[in-house]
């Protein structure tokens, strides 16, 4: 009675929630809190997408769709890969999911045996570990170096790969660091992983939000690589809950069975709307926003350098910068809470993302305009100099 499944104990809550909660309380008292902790764009979806969503409701297109997604949407995604990334991806290989989160759960269920482990860099997106726990497996966080952009050193892979290792999960651009993997790196990762009989997943949810470095897809390297993506970030559709996974041809049938059983289908209104995401006008708007993010990034990086806070990984993509605060504190979480209390700036502590050195870092999300960013930087400067 009243006893949760033991796996729930292994799921860590987000530490940033404590920051968010306190931020809300402070805001409720009338204080002006600057939010740099939130990992979602401060934009809404382009107009064509919103209108197509409204039309889908008006037309009554609100029932289940095929489990793998609307054929028109899958075709649109496939054409986007061809046009934008010169990658040939047959629509049958695309499974539309409720967000990239749905895709990650599907991936864990599809490819990871219970009792096995999956390698991923420390730090990385925290939910990955938890999706594996749901499947009775676990993440093995591989120690990385800030000087190597927190990417897994592929020449030491034998130190980490054991007989229970099922594969490796990477992300580019990365959350929390913003680092972008090069095509050469992902090619080598595929060579190393496939030589050991494992699978490789590349989470490309921040695809398109690249300011410096390669904006490519791992699908152009090998069709046996699994790739995850989403409408949440580039298309600013976080609450529409729509993403996708591209699987190798041999995995389509298994992935379809799982999609049917796990979700029945992704949200239909969101799927009808998302067909418009690849329209020229929508892509032009997304590109303008990419430029806006790029300008914010420049402002943030310049401001951080001026106040002497080192950005530890090359912040080439997504909308994140990972910053070393170890000269100031040995407890990033406490530092975040104190900064919030005293200067009303909310950041995410590194401890949400990793184990080894995560207490040294904080994540900045540049999801507010440049004036707000400048104001945040001047408050942080005052806080540090106090
Ligand atoms: C790296 C990464 N993967 C997956 C997700 C899940 O995104 P969604 O389910 O909104 O598509 C996120 C969300 O922040 C993320 O940062």
From TrEMBL:
The cofactors named for this UniProt entry are:
pyridoxal 5'-phosphate
Which GO molecular function terms does the record list? pyridoxal phosphate binding; transaminase activity
Signal peptide (residue range): none
What does the record give as EC number? 2.6.1.-
Q: Which Pfam families match?
A: Aminotran_1_2
Query: Endoplasmic reticulum among the record's keywords?
Result: no
Aminotransferase class I/classII large domain location is 32-380
- The superkingdom listed in its UniProt entry is Bacteria
- Read off the CDD domains from this record: AAT_like
Question: Might you name a Gene Ontology BP term for this protein?
Answer: amino acid metabolic process
Keywords of this protein's UniProt record, alphabetized?
A: Aminotransferase, Pyridoxal phosphate, Transferase
Tell me its family. Belongs to the class-I pyridoxal-phosphate-dependent aminotransferase family.
UniProt name for this protein: Aminotransferase
- Taxonomic source organism: Marinomonas mediterranea (strain ATCC 700492 / JCM 21426 / NBRC 103028 / MMB-1)
């Amino acid at each position: 009675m009243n006893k949760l499944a033991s796996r729930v104990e292994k799921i860590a809550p987000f530490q940033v929630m404590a920051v968010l909660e306190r931020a809300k309380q402070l805001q409720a008292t009338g204080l002006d809190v600057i939010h740099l902790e939130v990992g979602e764009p401060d934009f809404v979806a382009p107009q064509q997408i919103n209108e197509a969503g409204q039309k889908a409701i008006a037309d009554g297109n609100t029932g289940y769709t095929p489990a793998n997604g609307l054929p028109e949407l899958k075709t649109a995604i496939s054409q986007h890969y061809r046009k934008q990334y010169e990658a040939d991806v047959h629509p049958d290989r695309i499974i539309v999911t409720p967000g990239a989160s749905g895709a990650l759960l599907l991936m864990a269920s599809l490819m990871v045996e219970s009792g096995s482990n999956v390698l991923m860099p420390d730090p990385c997106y925290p939910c990955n570990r938890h999706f594996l726990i749901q499947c009775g497996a676990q993440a093995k966080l591989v120690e990385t170096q800030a000087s190597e952009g927190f990417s897994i050193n592929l020449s030491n892979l034998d130190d980490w790969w054991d007989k229970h290792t099922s594969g490796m999960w990477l992300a580019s651009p990365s959350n929390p660091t913003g680092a972008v993997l090069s095509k050469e790196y992902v090619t080598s990762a595929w060579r190393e992983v496939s030589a050991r009989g494992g699978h490789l997943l590349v989470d490309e949810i921040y695809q398109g939000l690249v300011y410096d470095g390669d904006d490519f897809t791992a699908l152009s390297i090998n069709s046996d690589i699994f790739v995850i993506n989403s409408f949440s970030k580039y298309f600013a559709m976080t609450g529409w809950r729509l993403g996708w996974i591209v699987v190798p041809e041999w995995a389509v049938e298994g992935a379809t069975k799982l999609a049917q059983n796990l979700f029945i289908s992704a949200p239909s209104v969101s799927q009808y709307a998302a067909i418009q995401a690849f329209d020229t006008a929508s892509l032009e708007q997304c590109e303008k926003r990419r430029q806006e993010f790029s300008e914010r990034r420049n402002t943030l990086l310049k401001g951080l350098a001026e106040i002497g806070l080192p950005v530890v990984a090359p912040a080439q993509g997504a909308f994140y910068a990972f910053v070393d605060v170890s000269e100031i504190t040995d407890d990033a979480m406490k530092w975040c809470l104190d900064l919030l209390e005293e200067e009303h700036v909310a950041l995410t502590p590194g401890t949400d993302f990793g184990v080894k050195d995560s207490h040294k870092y904080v994540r900045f999300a540049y999801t507010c305009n440049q004036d707000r960013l400048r104001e945040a930087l001047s408050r942080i400067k005052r806080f540090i100099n106090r």
